[in-house]
């Protein structure tokens, strides 16, 4: 998967799922990590 597209998708998911600032960062890292295996 394209790195730029993966970053955008992870950022969108983190914005939707993350509660606060730290939660959003954690969700972003998890989604980015998981997309790395697709």
Automatic annotation (TrEMBL):
It comes from the Bacteria. Keywords: Membrane, Transmembrane, Transmembrane helix. The chain crosses the membrane at residues 17-35. This is Uncharacterized protein. It comes from Flavobacterium arsenatis.
């Amino acid at each position: 998967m394209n790195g730029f597209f993966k970053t955008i998708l992870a950022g969108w998911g983190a914005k939707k799922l993350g509660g606060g600032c730290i939660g959003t960062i954690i969700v972003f890292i998890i989604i980015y990590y998981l997309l790395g295996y697709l």
